[in-house]
Amino acid sequence: RPRRPGTRTMLPLLLLLLATAHSLADKQYVPTLATSPLGGLKTTSTFVLEQPRCAFTKVQSDAVIWLVVAIPKAVANFSNSVGPGTPERAFQGFPTSTQAYMTLNTTLRNYPCPKPPGETTVLRVGSETSCATDKMRPTCNGPLLSPGPYRVKFLALNGSKPVAETAWSKPITLKTALPSSSIPATGGGRSTGMIALTSILSILFAVLLAGLVAMLFFWGSHARGSSTFSKPEAVTVRRYNTHHVYNQPAARL
């Protein structure tokens, strides 16, 4: 049976689409929290991830790797075709009008594989405060406003075309700051407000006491310095009459 004229032209396109789908479906790498002993892996507004080393071994070295941060309900319907910097992926609208944003873009050259021994390879999510409200920087790595949970993945783009991605992480929940009213009373039933007021009054009393001591010391030094100067004695200069010396023999003439 003769083939249709468009069959030969469609075959390479189908192979390209299959290769792209296979690349995007290769999701063996799962982003994880860092295991660095530096501490502070999760705070009230940030968390630290391991860099995706050796996660994109089949893409070109000039591909750009993006971090996607999303709320859990956005994972099922997330579209890789919506690129970074668009209103649908802007940090400033997250998580109210934007359910996922893209940030921390870098080339694959900055994620060499294998990792050099002894090198700390982590990414802190939420560390930029200067651009948190700047709509001109929609890819800002701004602080997270709630404890979450959040899920993240890495997405590789060649231009605006998605070429590879990782799996989504497990839910990441940040620490929660305790309000002052929930802190239990200490010191024999005294509240934290009373302890703070007592501390302030103690500091003020110490400052006043130090000022009083300094003033007394100054006055004492001034009094001792004044007693060392006595009234100078009057200097009396005696007056002498000059006796002229006469030539006695000549005077008798």
Task: Provide an overview of this structure.
The chain is α+β, with helices and mostly antiparallel strands. Helices cover 23% and strands 14% of the residues. It is built from 3 helices and 6 strands, in the order H-E-E-E-E-E-E-H-H. The chain has helices at 7-25, 192-226, 248-252, and strands at 47-50, 64-70, 100-107, 122-125, 151-158, 161-165. The protein has a 4-stranded antiparallel β-sheet with strand order 3-2-5-6. The chain is elongated, with a radius of gyration of 42 Å. The model is unreliable at 11-23 and 228-232 (pLDDT under 50). Residues 1-25 form the signal peptide. This is Uroplakin-3b-like protein 1. Keywords: Membrane, Signal, Transmembrane, Transmembrane helix.
Total DSSP helices: 3
Radius of gyration: 42 Å
Strand content: 5-15%
Mean pLDDT: 80
Q: Count of DSSP E strands?
A: 6
Overall 3D form: elongated
What is the makeup of the main sheet?
A: 4 strands, antiparallel
Query: How far is the first residue's CA from the last residue's CA?
Result: 180 Å
Helix/strand/pairing category: alpha+beta
